[in-house]
Write a structure and sequence with these properties.
Layout lengths: L2 H22 L9 H15 L5 E7 L2 E10 L3 E10 L9 H18 L6 E8 L13 H11 L4 E8 L27 E6 L4 H14 L3 E6 L12 H6 L4 E5 L21 H16 L3
């Protein structure tokens, strides 16, 4: 990937994160029109990349909300899903959580419209990941996971992008249990790839792929689903429905003290690292058999 393409990716990532976290700000059911504004922006971005959009709309607390799906059908019948949630908790602009990840999904979609992977890839932006919806029937990814199960869509793996923009060279990295700091870095300068035991093959594939195709330091963890918060994103919905799923993350509140705060702003994001993540994920998927 040449320098000009990398600069385009960086510019687009910033544009997406700025629109979501600055122009719209907090995005949830109780801030009128905020989810609709986010949906319209995501739709228009994906349409400008050449995709047909499907909005999976459902009722929640008497209002309509939507998952946003594009299906890049190519190669094998097996499907790979790349997803991220676009909502926030009240009171935060949600730059890292989760405009950073939405921006990466949108850029991956743009790039894959140029070059076809060996697998069919679905890009999905989920509504209602945050409390009080998490784990419930109103969680957007739960609605979609149940849908693909009912339709018998052959899903190989779901990749959940959850907070991917906060990095620091300082030794601020925390872990679920203190002993982990003996085996994992103290500096908060890496991206994490995590999954349950069923998904360990894909944890390995994406850890190695991101390392090979980008300049990002990459760490991985395969553990029981209940361990250390690895089930606190949209990958959980797919585990619940029997699928392989992994999460790619900057480790969220184990690093970023702006988590669910009004200080989760765009100036805290590292767009150079995010460009590297786009490159790493893109090349990994492109080379998957």
């Amino acid at each position: 990937m040449d320098v000009l393409e990398e600069e385009t990716i960086r510019r687009n990532l910033y544009q997406h994160a700025e629109y979501l976290s600055v122009k719209i700000g907090e995005r949830h059911l109780w801030r009128e029109d905020s989810l609709e504004m986010a949906r319209e922006y995501i739709n228009s971005t994906l349409e400008s990349s050449g995709y047909d959009i499907w909005n999976q709309t459902f009722k929640c607390y008497g209002r309509e909300v939507s998952n946003i799906i594009v299906q890049h059908e190519y190669g094998s019948k097996e499907v790979l899903i790349v997803g991220a949630h676009y909502d926030t908790v009240p009171g935060t602009p949600g730059a890292d959580d989760n405009a950073s990840a939405v921006s990466v999904v949108l850029e991956l979609g743009r790039l894959f419209k140029k070059f076809n992977p060996k697998k069919s890839v679905h890009f999905v932006l989920f509504v209602n990941e945050e409390p009080p919806f998490f784990g419930s029937s109103n969680m957007g990814s739960m609605v979609y996971a149940k849908y693909i199960k009912e339709k018998n869509i052959p899903l190989s793996v779901m990749i959940s992008l959850e907070m991917v923009g906060y990095f620091s060279e300082d030794e601020i990295q925390d872990y679920p249990i203190p002993i982990m700091s003996l085996f994992y870095p103290k500096r908060a300068n890496y991206i994490g790839v995590v999954g349950n035991f069923r998904s360990r093959r894909y944890v390995s594939i994406f850890k190695k792929g991101i390392r090979r195709h980008s300049r990002l330091i990459t760490q991985s963890l395969t553990a029981p689903e209940f361990f250390g918060g690895i089930n606190l994103s949209d990958n959980y919905s797919f585990w619940r429905n029997g699928y392989c799923a992994i999460m790619i993350t900057d480790t969220s509140f184990f690093r970023n003290k702006n988590y669910h705060q009004d200080s989760d702003t765009i100036d805290t994001l590292n767009f150079d690292k995010m460009v590297e993540l786009v490159k790493g994920i893109y090349q990994t998927i492109l080379n998957m058999g």
